[in-house]
Amino acid sequence: MTDKIQRKKPEILSPAGSIESVRAAVNAGCDAIYIGGSRFGARAYADNPQGDDMREVIRYCHRYGVKVYMTVNTLLKPEELADSLYDYIAPYYLEGLDAAIVQDVGVMRFLHRHFPGLDLHASTQMTLTMGESASVLKPYGVTRIVPARELSLPELADMRRETGLELEIFVHGALCYCYSGQCLFSSILGGRSGNRGRCAQPCRLPYTMKNQKECYPLSMKDMCTLEILPELIEAGIDSFKIEGRMKKPAYAAGVTSIYRKYIDLYYSGKPYEVAEADREFLSSLYIRSEVGEGYYHQKNGRNMITLSSPAYSKTSEQVLETIENQYLKQNRKIEIDATISLKKGEPGVLFLTDGNVQASAIGSIPQEALKQPLREEDVRKQMNKLGNTSFKIRDLQILMDKDIFVPVRALNDLRREAVIHLEEERIRENGFSCQRHMEEESVYCSSMDPLSGKGVHEKLRHRNRYPEMLDVYVSTKEQFYALSEQLDIKKRQSLPIRRIYLDYALLDGKDISSDAQEQWAGRLFLAGPYVIREHNRRDLSKLEAALRGGCFAGLLFRNLETYAYMKKVLPDYNLIPDHNLYFWNHETVQFWENRITEYTLPVEENQSEWKELLAKTPDTMEAAALVYGYLPMMVTANCIESTLKSCRHEAGICVLTDRYKTSFPVLHNCRSCYNIIYNSVPLSLHTLVEKGMQGITAYRLDFTTENGDETVSVVRYFADLLSGTDRKPPYQEYTTGHIKRGVE
Questions:
Q1: Are 473 and 628 a contacting pair, CB within 8 Å?
Q2: Rounded to an integer, what distance in angstroms lies between the CA atom of residue 101 and that of residue 107?
């Protein structure tokens, strides 16, 4: 037997946006499904089941040996987590839910504490790109990582080997242009947050760049990996995920059946070759007109984008009819053998077996027939009434005396009880628990949480401080030296700046002058990259060397990989998470409480939600608020210039224009090989600064495209607001972001 046949088969994980899709995927041969309930899933507009329907989904899947993973992969607001999450998950946990998929580390912490028997899968929304992050997640019950979809095959193989955790990857369906979890595009433009499962997909709209025709440069081709399945298997991947919870049951069934066929083909030992008919089958089934293999063999490029149109190809009616007949019209039936004994003076007994497990039920004692005796065909008729159950009788043996009478109701009760017992035995035989118990854990309710409800204000000292200082992030040396000049003590032009965050890219080339370092001693911080990959792992070493050099007092980190690495090599260093680490609730604050001393408030929450979060922040932690800057709407592995022109391998900024003539700056970060698409106008919360907000330690100003003079002008303006001087902003256009309304 060859190595490839000995290797454990990867799981086929199918999408289920409805109960119909569940049955379709199971009938087509999936090993697991992922499904959202009525709340907290990243596909809020799917026809998600709830309550009794969801519990029946779990039971149904377990009868066939299929696992059920529930998507809880959105960011949760404080009141949702404190008042709703426990009661939402508890019935599904008790029913035997196999795992929950999570994005929010606060949700992860909460679920692990209250449902310790539940496996947790780290969602692709966490933007996990290297194995370092596993050390942060493992203690909280995370057994599987769904890494960023941009990783290459070698990166995936390394992550699997380094972490020892299961790895789940996407193999088919739509792809986001942005690193998942690093996209605020829909949120900023229309208030529909992708982090809340309500993305409006602005990436599928047309845009132009200078001297270029209008096209769809942000619309990724759909993924189809049939050709490279052997490579994915040999990389050690544990689960192959099919995208598409918003798509119809026919899609779930059709795609699952094809991937089932080819995974089984690989393990059969026969030559692996994809039939043209199967390619055509998939291409005609709710997929875009252009497909590719994703990032497994390619970093970026024009041939990954549906430049001409993101539209779906026409779905073949013939294909739909085939799927309908094979997988949708009938439930997958398990053949069983049955024996019923109806003897005088003895209780009726029904035995059922599927060949591996058996079950029985005992009924009432048959009576002597006073009129018409029970006929064998009557018994056969009632026993075969299995209806919507998972079973179909293959062979029925009837052992019965003559001249007896058994009510039809009694026969039906006997059949139903035996079927229930067989279902339970099958679930156990498939390795599932029929129902969990919480005997070892105390029953939890929201009122018991020390950080929930109104009582929090009694436990934490009131945070009555108003910010008096500014934090400033600079991305160019021009911005940095302009501010340094304004703080020249000899010129008596001091500004209330608590610290300067210097973008890590400025470490390249000549170092910051020693005079500048001395001037900012104790107040100069580094800001790390948004994404760390194997190809820019060197940045971690450079960051470490810079921090060890003594010039920088701390690091603003933007991903778990950077945090985990720095915590290992510099455990006592001041590490500060940026707003894209999403401090949305008190559980997230508690997750970080003993790891950091300060965090950045999230940009998608409103002022009221900020206040609630600050009230639940312990006095050992501080919080800063971003009040000015062009917000990063997308961080993407793909490159606009590489798509529309050619990559010059030079850092710089280009401009993307939408159909309303709105222009968005795009930063080419060639050092780390990613793009950042910024909003067209800066965020400006000057009214908030003017009034002040208790509990915030400092207001942060972020500078990206501004020149030196513009940078100084904005800093002076906010400094004046802090001193009580009210004047107009030095910029005409701006947005107040989500500070008033928040997001859906």
A1: no
A2: 10
Neighbours of 538 (CB within 10 A): 11
Q: Which CATH class is domain 461-629+682-722?
A: alpha beta
Q: Which helix (H) or strand (E) holds 717?
A: helix 708-722
Bridge partners (DSSP) listed for residue 299: none
Q: List CB contacts of 460: < 8 A, sequence separation 6 or more.
A: 615, 616, 617, 618, 619
Token pair belonging to 50: 């709830």
Q: Do domains 3-175+222-273 and 461-629+682-722 have the same CATH topology?
A: yes
**CATH class entry, domain 3-175+222-273:** alpha beta
**Do residues 374 and 401 touch, judged by C-beta distance below 8 A?**
no
Three-state DSSP state, 684: strand
Q: How far apart are CA 555 and CA 691, in angstroms?
A: 29
Alpha helices in 387-492 (DSSP H): 408-429, 456-459, 477-486
SS3 content of the chain, % helix, strand, coil (to 5): 35, 20, 45
Classify burial at 166, counting beta carbons within 10 Å of its beta carbon; exposed 0-12, middle 13-18, buried 19 or more: buried
CA distance 649 to 643: 13
Are 418 and 336 a contacting pair, CB within 8 Å?
no
pLDDT profile of the chain (744 residues), mean per 10: 61 94 95 84 56 90 95 90 88 94 96 95 96 94 97 95 96 94 92 89 92 92 96 96 91 96 96 95 86 93 92 84 86 90 93 93 91 91 90 94 92 94 90 65 38 34 70 94 74 78 81 69 92 91 91 95 96 96 95 95 95 91 97 95 80 90 92 93 96 93 97 96 92 95 83
Q: Would you mind telling me the total number of residues written for the chain in this entry?
A: 744
Q: Which residues pair with 598 in a beta bridge?
A: 622
d(Cα 265, Cα 259) in Å, to the nearest integer? Answer: 10
Domain residue spans of the chain: 3-175+222-273, 334-429, 461-629+682-722
